[in-house]
Amino acid sequence: MPQAKVQHPQHSASASTIVTNSDRPSSPGVSSLRSHASRTTGSDDISTPIEQFEINEEGTEADADADVSGVRRSNGHGLPPVDGGWGAWTYLAAATALEMLIWGFANSYGVFLDHYDTIYPKSSMLPIIGTVAMGIMYTLLCPATLWLTSHPRQRIPAMWVGVVFLGAGLLGAAFAESAGGLVVTQGVLYGIGGTLLWCPPTNYMFEWFHSKRGLAAGIMLSGTGAGGLFMPLISIGLLERFGKRTTLLAIGIGYIILLTLIIPFVRPRLPLSQQTTTRIPKVNWDFLKHAPFWMLWLGVLFQGLAAFMPSTYLPSYATALSLSPTIGTIAIALMNTARVPGQVFLGYLADKLGARKLIISMALASGISVFAGWGAAKDSGGLIGFSIAFGIFAGSYTALLSSFTKVLNHDDPHLPAILYALFYLARGIGSIISGPISAALMNHTTLGNAKGGYGVQGFGVLILWTGAGMIMSGIGAGYKTFKMD
């Protein structure tokens, strides 16, 4: 069958070929690709090399997939199959394991905070350590996504650099002699290393999965909850028996070994020669001028300002109730575990119901769980019950972020990943700010005579702040006013 080759007239040597079946009408996917090609090869920017893609219009939906730029490609030329096969599932297993290790330790900081309080009493910097680590991972995802999208050859090297930073953070924390030293090591260095390890597997998911991308994302996110189950239990066992230095040394060395074994399985599906290797792709930033984006972004920010409080303070809260420290650790473990089914189910509902209804539902449910659950918890049963409820509702909130991109995306192939990173940026800012805010709130004892959890030492004001932040996260549903969906 005759084929038509489209090349840039001024750059035939470097321009790549778009192949179509000229005997049949163009499909929407081909029209989108032609439009994309015309934008990248316009006369106003003739110095930009054309990206290489190939269209096989005789392929079926099952044969097609999407590369990191969102352009449809075929499974030809010996590429591994999409949505299945040894390559896809080993990649997903490795990515889930990375998620489990990186975020499992970060979400276990409450265990370390309770232990650090005995080593560095009355230090206002201690609550900042965990929020700095998570905040950096959230905020750096945005620039890391932009950089690695335009420099895909740097993705694997970035992961190895991440191992160095993360290992240095854990081993350095073992020898830190002050709370400030822990902020730099267990906070900043760990956060940078976690970002470099976390970003590339997220990018590769768009190559390996298309029709099963929701399932793949749910499995990957479940690693956070799984890691949040066993890491607090491992950490408290080591801390109680061996102390801070040995615990962090053991975890640091163990992480370096495990990461070294996992990274080789985090592989791209598309050959590097067929990916963008020049500069940051052009993106239509007009969405920044519209209120719907900022409503959604502020909702994520409010959620981030409050969502990390329980995981940070539950062990200390259990101690304040004269409960065993193990109860606080179990509470964190169960909170993280509850996120696993919560994230998968919430992602499924987002496809069926749309984001707006779920934003409102999760905001109200999360707020009620705090005001009625944590605010009333005076024993181990109440504390564990709150932890499970909060994990299901507030802990699963990140599963909605991919739906937020659908509200604002207008067929720009690069925009979904960038929007996703910008929403994580809001969550990261909230995480970082929540550290000093929580330290300040814990200095207030104005509710000391209140009933239930509100009257436990300085936790009353903290509980009120957390519940209010959960309710305010519902502001994102205000985009309905602008009729964007």
TrEMBL record:
PROSITE patterns: MFS (PS50850)
Keyword Transmembrane helix among record annotations: yes
Topology versus the membrane: Multi-pass membrane protein
Species this protein is from: Kwoniella dejecticola CBS 10117
An example Gene Ontology molecular-function term: transmembrane transporter activity
GO cellular component, one term: membrane
Keywords from the named record: Membrane, Transmembrane, Transmembrane helix
Annotated stretches, region: Disordered: 1-50
Name of the protein in its database record: Major facilitator superfamily (MFS) profile domain-containing protein
Regions of compositional bias (Polar residues) in chain numbering: 9-50
Subcellular location: Membrane
Keyword Membrane in annotation: yes
Residue runs in coiled coils: none
Residues annotated as transmembrane: 88-106, 126-149, 156-176, 188-206, 218-239, 245-266, 287-308, 314-337, 358-377, 383-405, 417-439, 459-479
Occurrences of domain Major facilitator superfamily (MFS) profile (ranges): 292-485
